Amino acid sequence: MKPAVVIPICICAAALGSHATRFSNVVNPPVRAAGLEAQETHAAASLLGQFRTSISSFLFLRSDLYLHGGVEMRPLTKKEVDSGKKGVGAAADENEKLADDDSIVTVIPGARDDFRGIFGDVERSVASYKDMTGHHHQSPTQTLPLFRLMTWLDPKFIEGWTTGGYVILFDQKPGCIEKALAYLQQGLESNPDSIDILGQVAYCYLKEMEPIGYKGHQYDKALPYLEHARKIGVGNLKLLTEGEKEALEENYRRLAVCYRELHRYQDMRDCSLEGLQLFGQDGSLRQHAKEAEQLLRTQTTRQ
Asked: What do you get for the CA distance between the two ends of the chain, in Å?
């Protein structure tokens, strides 16, 4: 092959590799077993996996664009977070939290943060832009087929399962709990050790939904999922992403509540102290630990 042909091919290959790497940051897989299955080590299987992951990531981004009314969003950079900048946040009256809107901002900056002056004003006037501070999301029901498609293409796409579960619950219609649980159980079949999905299943059992008369608070049903998430988290703490660590911390809070409501005060205390050891000054866990101590003293006095 002539050098003149080889060079463009190498450049294209490098560009595609960079593109795949960028998408891999969007897709946070669960803690995976070391090594691939034998058939997955084949180059064609690896390329197919990258393609499926890329398509799932693209569908996820399209659904996010729809949820935000066509306004493109981006996560805050580490520099912005360290400087104290806040995300746009979501409306306080929304039933379900579809995304971490406290850590995202519009791709096109607002006038106050835009150094471009009149050029920024021109872009905001011609592009799909509006002030998203405290915004409402579009009803996400129409995006559910996208979540089903992206998880079918890539069953390891955790955000597709967890966000899809929230989408099913969003409108709080009769049968939504059963549908969300069935959807998440499918996710667990492919990702049995996903802390995020395990926590989401527990959330479905604990969440109260007055509009449909669902009382929630099924602590005994939520408990096994939270205990499994705790076991996975402790055993793989150094391998967890930041998102998984946040999910694990939230699961510790829910687990402490479950132990309290099931009158397992010693387990409540141990769980809260373990969570504090892992995550430092978590106000909820610190309060749960104090409450567990008081309940244990009361229990001992009565005996």
From this structure: 87
Say if residue 100 is exposed, middle or buried (CB neighbours under 10 Å; 0-12, 13-18, 19+): middle
Domains and CATH numbers, the chain: 69-137 (no CATH), 140-303 (1.25.40.10)
CB-facing half-sphere around the CA of 253: CA atoms within 13 A: 15
Cα dihedral 242, 32, 168, 53, rounded to 10, equals: 90
In this prediction, residue 42 carries a pLDDT of 38
* Residue 135 β-bridge partners: 90
192: its two tokens: 């049995």
Number of continuous H segments (helices) and E segments (strands) in the chain: 12, 2
Strands 73-75, 104-106: pairing kind: antiparallel
Distance CA 276, CA 282 (A): 6
The amino acid that residue 29 corresponds to is P
Rounded (5°) CA angle 178-180-183: 110
Q: Which residue has the tokens 């909820």?
A: 284
d(CA 132, CA 109): 11
pLDDT tens by residue, 73-128? 777 788 888 888 877 776 555 555 555 677 777 777 777 887 888 877 777 777 76
Element (H, E) at 221: helix 219-235
Q: What is the pTM of this model?
A: 0.65
**Regions of the chain where pLDDT drops below 70:** 1-70, 90-100, 128, 130, 134-140, 303
Backbone angles phi, psi at 105, to 5 degrees: -140, 170
Which candidate, 151, 156, 157, 65, places its Cα nearest to that of 104?
65
